[in-house]
Structures are given as structure tokens and as C-alpha cells.
Amino acid sequence: MDSGDEIAVADEADAVLWGRCLDGDGEAMAMLFDRHERRLFRAALRDASTVHDAEDIVSTVFLELWRSRARVRVVDGSLLPWLLVTCANVSRNVARSRRRYRTLLAKLPPDEHEPDPADGALDAIEALQRDRRVAAALRELRPADRQILVLSAVEGLSLAECASALGIGHDAAKARLTRARRRAKSLLTESMGDPFVAVRMEETRA
Fold it and tell me: Do 156 and 165 form a contact (C-beta atoms < 8 A)?
């Protein structure tokens, strides 16, 4: 492939590359991975306890992309909204497994000569939380509300993109996002949260 061909492939919309993937083109899948891996890694890192976990989450997302290929939604020519939703779902599953693991560790008698492995995991999670008050507020939201708020306020998707990615109508997405913003702002106010974050949530594109 010459340089002109490489530029043409790089400029192809996700929808075109995805169509090539469905035809068995492995190079197209690699292009999609290279295009979205960094964005998905940042999203996964918000919830993952380690960089390695975040990398595993991203890999799982692309595995799910192929496994669920019959149900994948392309939003305005882009796979990113679907990938972000899947990334959030995978991250939640990993978090559940981690909680079950910590619960199991807590029931075991600690080794007098070894540090508790759970301590290191908890320290890593705390270190990755850039704003603990915001994280706490998000955890208080219902999963559906938290999901659309993260897609909108953090990932910067428009309301239409959120609705399409989540498979719900525009009015339902608007109502859910309004409810999520109102609840998050209330929680942030109660905990004296960062006002800039609350303003950003309110001013997210609709």
C-alpha cells in the first residue's frame, strides 16, 4: 500500500471500515482499534484499578464489538458511541468482580507476614480518582442516569448521539439527562463539590 492509499484508509468513516470488517477485512479492524483505542483507554481508566485492567477492558470492548456485530449501532458514521457504552458496561462488570474478590479477601484471615492485597487495590483506585466528590456523586446516580451523564458531560456526545447509542428515543434521552444533571448537581452542592464540574454538566451540548 502506498502513502496515498494509507491516507485514504485513514480518512474512511467508521461505517466504511466496519463494513469492510464484516466482509472479513482484518486490516480494517486494526484501523478501528488504532482510531479509538486511546479514547476508550481514557474512559476505562476512570474506573479501572490499574493501567493493566484498563488495557484489558479496551481489549474486551473490541472483542464484544465482533461478538455483537449483528447488534452494533453506527451513529452518524461513527462507532465511538457504541464503543463507549460497551466500555462502561465492561468496566461495571470488572468492578463487580473486583468487589466480590475484595469481599472474599475480607473473609480470609490475613497473613501476618504479608500485606493485604486489597489495600494496594484500594489505594490504586483512590489515586485514579481525580475528583472524589464527583466520583461519589456519580456513584449515587442510577446506572442509566450515570451512563448518559458520562456519555454527555465527560465524553462530549450530543443528545442525539447519546439517544442513538443507548437505543432510546430523543425525548426519553432528554428527560433522562435532565434528571441525571439535576440529581448530580444536587449531590455536588451537598458535598460542596467543584462548581466548575456542575456548570460543565449543565452546559453540555444538547
Answer: no
Query: Are residue 109 and residue 140 in the same domain, yes or no?
Result: no
Tell me, what CATH number does 154's domain have? 1.10.10.10
Which long-range contacts (C-beta less than 8 Å, at least 24 apart) are formed by 104-107?
Answer: none
167: left (phi over 0), alpha (psi -120 to 50) or beta: left
Q: State the SS3 of 50-93.
A: CHHHHHHHHHHHHHHHHHCCCCCCCECCECHHHHHHHHHHHHHH
Q: Could you give the number of structural domains in the chain?
A: 2
- pLDDT single digits (tens) 55-88: 889 999 999 999 988 889 899 999 999 999 999 9
Q: What's the 3-state SS for 11-36?
A: HCCHHHHHHHHHCCCHHHHHHHHHHH
Q: Which of 66, 60, 4, 56 lies closest to 29 in space, CA to CA?
A: 66
Phi first, then psi, for residue 75 (nearest 5°) are -105, 115
